[in-house]
């Protein structure tokens, strides 16, 4: 009997797709990620199906679109009935270990209102076994620091202030107060190596999560000085944030309400006040955090190589979502711009990789990760899953009937730290959008606000909304129909392949249809 594969699923936080050297970001120094790209397949057009963290991770780990899992925002519960990767792995004999977090709020029907998990942004998804917790409220990390003998400040999050008691909070080239050996990335790496060394040579699955390059955007030495702001590109945005805001009411809301304090510990003022020099420095720090993660991955990869496990381990590298980084005058992961939704995906299979080093241009989505892992390990893909197995693309390229566009969603109802719903005067269930795009066009449909339509060939950065132009009415209609057809095709279908007959229950084997071109719909 062939030896079972190991699986290392690396999930970073807030790393956007154009910060991958293998895809053209030559200014970055990531030798370990570069190695993974050389030995596996890198996906050029990969998106998270939704943002922010909680909904994105729900789609990643359940294989379901937001329209189906309905954990629509951070703090909104995930229905306990849904299958997820952890539960599915247990069915085929794996003990799914998790380092990091999933930002999952539990189903309130499975517990009571006094459950402390309802006082946090999110906790761990059922089905996984934590071997290096970060949640709730980063207690795992701060406890580790205290155990290491580090004197935590009050409040403890002040470790992410700039070094020096008189340093100004905000965008900075200074290092943070925590040294590199005690950073959160170092913590996750130590937890990973502890788990792997304890596991020995028994087959394993490990979800290895990293908090970075998520804000606060401040790096430990020497990573704070590893990149110069002069190396960084400036933001893609209109001359003023007010010009940008005129495009759509939702964009206007975020441009008025996103604060710097969510990205720089102790900072004041609106994100729209950051000038180009500040944006470039922020990006240099962001790159430093990326290289720190790469160094940490090098330690994990070296252990797998030294113990003879590298060749028999399937490695998947991805992120939960992207980051605006000042583009369109925005920070964070919000709205409908590509910077929030386009993310990395690299897959190295265990054993033979006939397409090693290649870049795959087909459209792929975060919901594809769960079915890909299950297919690689011989498990059954739940019928409800909206994603597709990527192993054919890893081994031989996209089949002719592969999807022809990417589908994304975003829900902007009020949560305790953000109130677009109130600001826009919408009902809670009208605070939703879905977007559909290929390489030429992007259509964004809102349940309670005007639509958007962009010509990506002429306007790749989506500055000019064509949705209300008479000359584009037919195109807008076609793309709206395409979005509707896609949603209808992926409506919840757990039991829809069963039917009663005079001779009893019948189960139909009907693989999900690929998306058809507009003309065929």
From TrEMBL:
Gene3D superfamilies, per the entry: 6.10.250.3360, Alkaline Phosphatase, subunit A (3.40.720.10)
Name the Gene Ontology molecular function terms of this record. Answer: metal ion binding; sulfuric ester hydrolase activity
Q: Where is the Sulfatase N-terminal domain?
A: 5-378
Q: Which Pfam family is one of those matched by this entry?
A: Sulfatase
Keywords attached to this Swiss-Prot or TrEMBL record, sorted alphabetically, are: Hydrolase, Metal-binding
Stretches of the chain forming a coiled coil according to its record? none
> Record's Gene Ontology CC terms?
cytoplasm
Q: Where does the record place the region Disordered?
A: 501-521
Entry keyword rRNA-binding: no
Q: Which InterPro entries match?
A: Alkaline_phosphatase_core_sf, HdlasePehA, Sulfatase_N
This protein is called: Arylsulfatase A-like enzyme
- Native organism: Roseococcus suduntuyensis
Taxonomic placement:
Bacteria, Pseudomonadati, Pseudomonadota, Alphaproteobacteria, Acetobacterales
């Amino acid at each position: 009997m062939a030896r079972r594969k190991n699986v290392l699923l690396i999930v970073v936080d807030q790393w956007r797709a154009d910060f991958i050297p293998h895809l053209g970001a030559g200014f970055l120094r990531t030798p370990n990620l570069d190695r993974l790209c050389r030995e596996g397949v890198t996906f050029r057009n990969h998106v998270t199906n939704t943002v922010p963290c909680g909904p994105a991770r729900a789609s990643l780990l359940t294989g379901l679109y937001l329209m189906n899992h309905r954990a629509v925002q951070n703090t909104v519960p995930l229905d306990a009935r849904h299958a997820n990767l952890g539960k599915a792995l247990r069915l085929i004999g794996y003990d799914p270990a998790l380092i990091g977090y999933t930002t999952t709020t539990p189903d309130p029907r499975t517990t009571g209102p006094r459950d402390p998990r309802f006082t946090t942004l999110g906790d761990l998804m059922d089905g996984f076994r934590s071997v290096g917790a970060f949640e709730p409220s980063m207690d795992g990390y701060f406890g580790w620091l205290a155990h290491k003998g580090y004197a935590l400040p009050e409040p403890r999050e002040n470790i992410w202030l700039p070094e020096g008691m008189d340093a100004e909070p905000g965008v900075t080239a200074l290092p943070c107060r925590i040294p590199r050996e005690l950073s959160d990335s170092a913590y996750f790496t130590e937890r990973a190596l502890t788990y792997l060394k304890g596991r020995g040579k028994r087959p394993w699955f490990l979800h290895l999560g990293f908090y970075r390059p998520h804000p606060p955007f401040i790096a430990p030495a020497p990573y704070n000085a590893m990149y110069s702001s002069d190396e960084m590109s400036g933001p893609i945005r209109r001359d003023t944030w007010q010009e940008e805001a005129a495009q759509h009411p939702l964009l206007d809301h975020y441009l008025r309400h996103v604060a710097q304090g969510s990205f720089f510990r102790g900072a004041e003022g609106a994100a729209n006040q950051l000038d180009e020099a500040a944006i470039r420095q922020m990006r240099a720090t962001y790159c430093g955090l990326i290289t720190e993660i790469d160094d940490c991955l090098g330690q994990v990869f070296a252990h797998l190589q030294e113990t003879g496990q590298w060749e028999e381990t399937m490695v998947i590298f991805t992120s939960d979502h992207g980051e605006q980084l000042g583009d369109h005058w925005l920070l964070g992961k919000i709205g409908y711009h590509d910077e929030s939704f386009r993310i990395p995906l690299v897959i190295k299979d265990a054993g033979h990789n006939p397409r090693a080093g290649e870049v795959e241009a087909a459209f792929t989505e975060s919901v594809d990760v769960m079915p890909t892992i299950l297919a690689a390990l011989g498990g059954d893909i739940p019928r409800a899953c909206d994603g597709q197995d990527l192993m054919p693309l890893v081994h031989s390229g996209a089949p002719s009937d592969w999807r022809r566009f990417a589908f994304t969603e975003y829900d902007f109802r009020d949560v305790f730290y953000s109130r677009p719903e109130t600001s826009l005067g919408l009902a809670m269930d009208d605070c939703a959008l879905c977007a559909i795009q290929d390489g030429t066009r992007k259509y964004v449909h809102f349940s309670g606000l005007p639509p958007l339509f962009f010509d990506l060939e002429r306007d790749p950065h989506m500055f000019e909304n064509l949705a209300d132009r008479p000359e584009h009415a037919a195109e807008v209609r076609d793309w709206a129909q395409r979005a509707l057809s896609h949603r209808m095709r992926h409506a919840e279908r757990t039991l829809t392949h069963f039917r009663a007959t005079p001779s009893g229950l019948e189960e139909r084997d009907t693989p999900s249809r690929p998306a058809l071109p507009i003309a065929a719909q």
